[in-house]
Specification:
- The protein has about 375 residues and is α/β, with parallel strands linked by helices.
- It is globular.
- An 11-stranded mixed sheet has the order 5-4-6-8-1-9-16-15-10-11-13, with helices on both faces.
- The protein has helices at about 20-30, 55-65, 70-85, 120-130, 145-160, 175-185, 245-260, 280-290, 300-305, 310-325; strands at about 5-15, 35, 45-50, 95-100, 135-140, 165-170, 205, 205-215, 225-235, 270, 295-300, 330, 345, 350, 355-365, 370-375.
- It is built from 10 helices and 16 strands.
- The model has no long low-confidence stretch (mean pLDDT about 95).
Amino acid sequence: MKQDIFITDYNCVSPLGMDAASNWNALLQNRSGVALNNISEHQENFFVSKIDNEKLEKSFRQSFSSQEFTRLEKMLLLSLNPLLNRHSLTEETAFILSTTKGNISLLKNKDTVPEDVYLSVLAKKISEFFGFTTRPIVVSNACVSGVMAISIAKTMIRSGKYKDAFIVAGDEVSEFVVSGFNSFQAIGKEPCQPYDKNRNGINLGEAAAAVYITSQPSENEKFKFKISGDSAVNDANHISGPSRTGEGLFASVRNAMTEADISPDQIDFISAHGTATLYNDEMEAIAFNRMNLQNVPLNSMKGFYGHCLGAAGLLESIISMESALHNTLIPSRNFKEIGVSQPLNIIKEPQTAEINYILKTASGFGGCNAALVLEKY
């Protein structure tokens, strides 16, 4: 019999708040972090979701004395710190960092590559600050990184080498990232509208998120979510374009649900990827219909947070667990009229619902797709 693995704690830092509770309250108030922002003097203004620098610095000073950290590192430390205050480290505790670009901003105007740009160095810096004794692990697989980090932690604990794990995920909006997505002509000219017929591209965002995963939850845990099923499949379709048939996402969802041993009618809610690009949203609609999930309430959080890259999957998993704990479905912001070829049950208004099984999905460049089934205990 396979060992049960649980998420029992989490936290997040975003433009909507410096902890999970403030983020949840902001969502209930239908607040969005997406706004027109100037990223650099070399680019036009874009709609992005960006953390206020003054709020970030104030929160960091309240928690830490040292300032020898980059902006992204401060986000990661703030997100992870409350979990370390509530749970002890041992020689069997894993540390996982999920990010796509890390300290990429340090490359600006540099002739040589600063050491802190390397993701392994970033992971080691965060790990050593908190006193982890195990070797840090980096998950950097495009936009599925946050979801895959949960799957990897589960696998590592089941291997017997670790008893628990901390995951922290983060990316920031930078000139480099904005330039890259702009070169694909993938950035929307207005607040993004996932699955809507008028969608015209993504909004980028930034956040940090952290979760604690264990095989031995204590009796006084405030909540437990079992990682009942997980899967990651690459469709090998194109470096930036998803499979038109949703092959990779379909297979990931099928595998995760098979491991969880549940049927489509048992899924209470789907936290989808929903980037608001033409092909991603269409691919997801096809994949969900192939799995007979078209009637399950579904949302994308990109209208609230933008696309937070390596943090997106973990942040959105946290918000989906908050939804389950509060029995409340959050609408897919900016959605008005279906714009994909297959039917989906897009959440338009906040609503009360009993949520026991969550399906969280993610897709990214290079054909990567991932899915999780989380069960509320």
